[in-house]
Amino acid sequence: MSLSPAIRTAIAQAAAHHGGPKAAMLEALKLVQEAEGWVSDAHLKEAAEALGVTTAEIDSLATFYSQIFRSPVGDTVILLCDGLSCFLCGGDAVRDAVMSRLGIGFGETTPDGKFTLINICCVGGCDLAPVALVGPERKLVGPLTADDLDALIGGAR
Amino acid sequence: MSDKPLTGRATADRQPHSLAAWRRLGGGAGLALALKRHSPEAIIALIEAAGLRGRGGAGFPTANKWRFMRAGAEKAGPGACYLCVNGDETEPGSFKDRLLMEALPQQLIEGATIAAYAMGATEVIILVRDEYRAAAAALSRAIVEAEQTGLLGRDILGSGFDLTMRVHASAGRYIVGEETALIAALEGERPVPRHRPPYPAVSGLWGRPTTVNNVETLSAVPSIVEHGAEWYQGLSHTNEGGTKLYGVSGCVARPQLIEAPMGTTARELFDLCGGIRQGRALFAFQPGGGATAFLETAELDVPLDFAHTKRAGSSLGTGALIVLDDHACPVAAIGRHMRFYARESCGLCTPCRDGLPWVAKLLDTIEAGKGTRGDIDLLHQHVALSGPSGRSYCDLNTGALTPLRSGLERFGDIFAAHLQGSCPVGRA
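Output (structure tokens, whole complex):
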């Protein structure tokens, strides 16, 4: 499915706001991802065309930034921090529990398409360690116990 | 007059104020004074007298940086000049800028406006990491409010000074916080570091004079202008001015952010955090984030400013103290850092792209009790070959290997014990 006219308009506005089409490439990727959940090859190409840049130029960003997803993700993305502060506060136990509950590892999506689990670098919530960012708002949750995360997953299911 | 110029006006729930509420709390006074009473040069002199040093980690004197920019702008001639605010706080253990951006966006905007006026910038871009969505939203709202009330835009407060400001939300990569990579990111290039020289003050964003300042540095500026250099210097315990936003995390009872006089000791900070958790003892701590060398009990009373921390063999960095207790294995801890830095390397330079994953793998092997003497020798080699300059474009590799260098020096016996299949301190 093609990008909606609304997204195309937003991409054009981003180019004006960020000082040109090249500088707006990341914003265009984020707009696509917000609407579609991830950035497919077809949408990447359309975004490039909308900005007048090459597919290679925009893909060089899409493959660099860790929060641009180039393959499908689940309805809820759980970004679990694996920084040292979280580790020192029991992060491994939370990681093991969530992996066991979901039956997936980092970078994987549950077969029902509901959850994707990704490890992420320190998310600036070290006072609440261990922490995760959950859902489209990247809501910071912590300090997490295995039970908390279980409840979170259970609630969403 | 608050003794906490950075966080004194933050609410407990970190909700940002409206502009009207911010003004009721006395906000905006620094900007009004700056534009009505001071010349740009006078503000730079004030910042110099206050002893403000960059809070992004390097501790470079802020006034010098601003002077380079003025000189660069003069040489470059007419056209845009940029102040980029570095809000891409991704160093392990660092969580100070999140609070400043989320809860006190007007303070940062005011500081950036004064800084832009002082150094001759015409445009401010605040780069915020993607994971800080509440911060980006708070800043965007506050910018619109400032524009609507004449605090940004044309002829700010009738001074004749024009300034635009906008937020650029990043999309997750540690390297974007590096000065030249940040500039590349804003241009829409793949955000990898660039060679210096030319320095950004000469040729930065779009080839124009540019300064990159940290969020905490700029957030300190309004109160310095309002209350003066002497007052700011007086807040500090040492001759490095002001307060510092220390972030204590890891094995303390109550991990937290603490704004305290510059030069506060780790002992004082740990006491404020309820001490080492579960009645355990301190094993070691990193005073300034993941890329700083370990300190131990003997260094608990070192005043944590740039000079004293350096003299003690480490660095203040971002003031992010990560605390290990006597049950936290340093091999595992360093391994965690190494996995982070290996993953976050931009891949531009070989020592980083190939070296760090190798180091991370060696540490995993040693942690699992399957390492050999040869593995430890290899770690020493990696450390020895990570030169501070000339071998890579930026400091990521050198910084990444700093905790390993320090760990091998201080905890060599623990590394050796792992070769025998045992860990004398146990897992965290």
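The CA atoms of residues 285 and 404 of chain B lie 13 Å apart.
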